[in-house]
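We were asked to recover a plausible sequence for a given structure. The inputs and outputs are reproduced exactly as logged, with field labels preserved.

PROBLEM: sequence recovery
POSITIONS: 289
GIVEN STRUCTURE:
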């Protein structure tokens, strides 16, 4: 069972098509859907070289789309100041090393994601028995890493600040991955949540295709620590965000979104945790270095 509050109850974040291929939802914030996943662009359009930031990098096939939007949005040859990773799953890091080398830019992630980004270890196997559809059943075929970012990889500042994103702070929101982070801006109560929770069903091919706007917990097949995932959702709900961008699904806003998020936080086990788990039984742990 999942929280399924439909479009009449959850509002799309107010979106503007500026002709660059991304949805703009704030003067300095936009996102691009790339097949099954979103990437986020922070920075004022036309801001130029080193004046913007990319959050997550999509699939291995996403490079040309990201470069095209970046050029149209920020200017020809405008490189970001940084790439920020919410976590290291394959659909969020598919082009990260290629883009980091192309732009000569650092990649920032939480320390607990480092083993999955420095070539040390792979993520634990996914759980194809969580139910929901073909995406879950196919999940053992998805790449688990590790990838090796080499000297491009840097750790996020311990003070919660985010390089290149003044006014924002990162929040540790584990569960879906040990070092998963979300990004929060208090000024306008904007929240970028990666896969801490998502706004569409991700377990079925049909739901991935149509992307009805609904409130869901993190993708079930790749979430090994459900206790931590619940704590993370409760922490994010307590912020009372005005607008959220998740890693999967459309950006959402308004009272309906907050009510759905509160419902997910209050009844997380009922709405998010799969009733049957046959493959992953223990939370993922970071190996000793």
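RECOVERED SEQUENCE:
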């Amino acid at each position: 069972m999942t929280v399924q509050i439909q479009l009449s109850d959850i509002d799309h974040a107010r979106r503007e098509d500026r002709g660059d291929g991304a949805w703009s939802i704030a003067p300095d914030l936009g996102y691009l859907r790339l097949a099954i996943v979103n990437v986020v662009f922070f920075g004022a359009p036309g801001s130029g070289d080193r004046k913007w930031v990319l959050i997550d990098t999509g699939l291995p096939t996403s490079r040309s789309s990201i470069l095209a939007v970046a050029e149209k949005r920020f200017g020809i040859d405008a490189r970001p100041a940084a790439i920020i990773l919410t976590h290291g799953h394959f659909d969020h890091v598919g082009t990260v090393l290629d883009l980091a080398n192309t732009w000569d830019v650092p990649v920032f992630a939480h320390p607990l994601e480092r083993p999955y980004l420095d070539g040390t270890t792979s993520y634990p196997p996914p759980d194809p028995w969580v139910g929901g559809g073909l995406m879950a059943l196919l999940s053992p075929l998805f790449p688990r890493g590790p990838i090796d970012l080499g000297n491009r990889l840097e750790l996020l500042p311990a003070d919660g600040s985010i390089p290149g994103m003044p006014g924002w702070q990162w929040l540790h929101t584990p569960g879906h991955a040990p070092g998963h982070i979300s990004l929060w801006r208090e000024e306008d109560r904007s929240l970028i949540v990666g896969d801490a929770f998502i706004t569409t069903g991700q377990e079925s091919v049909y739901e991935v295709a149509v992307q009805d706007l609904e409130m869901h917990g993190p993708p079930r097949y790749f979430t090994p620590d459900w206790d931590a995932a619940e704590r993370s959702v409760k922490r994010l709900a307590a912020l009372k965000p005005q607008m959220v961008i998740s890693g999967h699904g459309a950006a959402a806003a308004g009272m309906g979104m907050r009510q759905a998020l509160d419902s997910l936080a209050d009844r997380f086990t009922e709405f998010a945790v799969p009733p049957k788990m046959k493959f992953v039984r223990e939370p993922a742990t970071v190996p000793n270095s």
